[in-house]
Amino acid sequence: MNLLKSLKAYFLSIGLILLLSSFSGKNSYSFGKWNINISIDNKDVTLTKNKLVVLQNFSASYKIGEKNISTKDYSISEITQMQQKDKTGKDTEIISIIYKSDKLPTMVQRFYVSAANDYILTDFSLESFGDIASNYMAPVVAEKINLVSGDNARALFIPFDNDAWVRYQSHKLDFERLTSYEVTAIFNNDSRNGLIIGSVEHHNWKTGIDMSAGNKTLNSLVCYGGAADKLTRDSKPHGALKGKSIKSPKVFIGYFNDWRAGLETYADANAAIAAPRAWDKAVPFGWNSWGVLQFNLTYQKALEVSDFFKNNLQNNHFQNADNTVYIGLDSGWNSFSEEQLKAFVDKCKANGQVAGVYWTPFTDWGKNPERTLSDAPEYKYKDIYLYANGKPQDLDGAYAIDPTHPAIEAQMKKTSELFRRCGFGYVKMDFMTHGALEADRWFNPQVTTGIQAYNYGLALMDKYFGDMFINLSISPVFPAQYAQSRRIACDAWNKIKDTEYTLNAVSYGWWIDRVYQFNDADHVVLQQASGGENRARVTSAVITGLFINGDDFSAGGSEEGKEKAKKFLTNPDVIAVAQGESFRPLEGNGEKSENQFVHTDKNGNVYYAFFNYGETPLTIELPLSRIGISAKKIKSAKELWSGEKVNLKSSITIQPKDVKLIKFEK
User: Fold this and answer.
1) Is the pLDDT of residue 470 over 70?
2) Cα atoms found within 13 Å of the Cα of residue 202, Cβ hemisphere only
3) For the chain, what is the radius of gyration of the CA atoms?
4) Which of 167, 204, 273, 463 is the most exposed place for a label (fewest CB within 10 A)?
5) Span 25-273: which CATH code?
6) Is CATH 2.40.30.110 the classification given to domain 584-665?
């Protein structure tokens, strides 16, 4: 028996030696366009697509405490290959690299490859017999990326949320350090070739992409779960995942002929994992009280606004494909009695409208810790705050509250019951980032990160408000599956600066309407602005998604606003363009925002919007080749605001603070 055991141990050891010896050098796996080369000696990976090196010699790393540990600190013990089918039935190959060390948890790095895709997914897990904890897991750690370079090479900054008038930005590759959130694109704007890297999972981690650049080249890139800083609105480090097995975010690595198609594909990959919240009706058109009325909202004024839309706009082209308009009460609606709320909803229904309302589920505006919660009287507000370093977290003038606390579910239940009794069909949820903040702890002990808590709260929102249209206002980009729409930028009103600010987000975040049903351009206000500014602001909504006006249409409201609404909200050609689909930017190198946007409709017609944000006229030649159309294939071209035909061989001039919106009919 002892001899058999010895022989068994001997042959097992021989097998292990043979296994390890087979890893002397590189192991290569090819799937369609992709090749994965694994260096056993260096413990790193090189990805190539169509023989072009996408990422070279990159590793993965994590932290335990303050110690950074890399794949390079391990030995590779095994490489496995298996096949599984994705949700669409396509085959996905999974390559797993198992790293082992006597003193470290086992590390399993995985690559998910579909031969036809222009991208690969990767993640890794840590496994141990005892509990481990990490608040930093980086599936991609790369140096010197030569794939994209040159005078017009760019890297995108994508913000974590849309608070505090944060701006998207396209940067030349001359920055010392740049952090983008969830995703970035590194591309050459001349050729449009681009590398897209970002997270496609958003249930545990806030993902950051740290980059450094110089001499027109990207010098380093690290994509990691664990971002927490002033732009995620955090005042303490990211929470840690804990357990015998913990996993990094799954990361998308793609290389595309057109970086814009790359970001759209990235969005589609997210939507394949967490499907956008369903909506089988047309894009919402309508009104929100926060544009001009704000805290001057009253019951009588709300009724008068509803009638104004019925009598002046709905009968003159301003309504969606369902012949519906949404009339929304923003902050201040709680001054109405329940009877008044019901009467307002009834008025809207009689006028062929859907009534909307507003709530901020994760905030305490009173900031009185000793105050008792009316919907959960067994608790005081101090019991439900999200504390950081022992102190309540004050963001935008409100204390953040814990989405996992049972008092929040009690509030959601009672508030949703009120909205449902009154008959509201649309809810604007605001200041959502409060619920995603990192904290000392959460009521639910299984929650250890801000995004876990945020998902917990959003799942409750879906449970209690799931039969209503949900519009997120100030909020993180991800997770996206709990709402039909999200405001693409922060507050914007009537001036050209508001149009430019909104379009800054559309310039580099248009793709977000693939993870939500619609992007929201915020309230379009017309009063106290020039006619050109009115055209530009309306066009910004038409090419973004939701089409929500914000002027005061009550009896005492601005006559200028009313007359302009009748003029600028009723152009049938312009209204017809508003199908809830965001336009792509034509370029990607705007100093502030792009000013040219394009879109192709389901019939093959192409739309081109050119904005002039400046103080002097702009004259241009139509960039047909850059748009991607041939003059020979255009039946006609028409500027939709003026109704005038466009001569394709002549230049066009856009007046200061104005826009041209052109339809090229196939």
Assistant:
1) yes
2) 28
3) 27
4) 463
5) 2.70.98.10
6) no
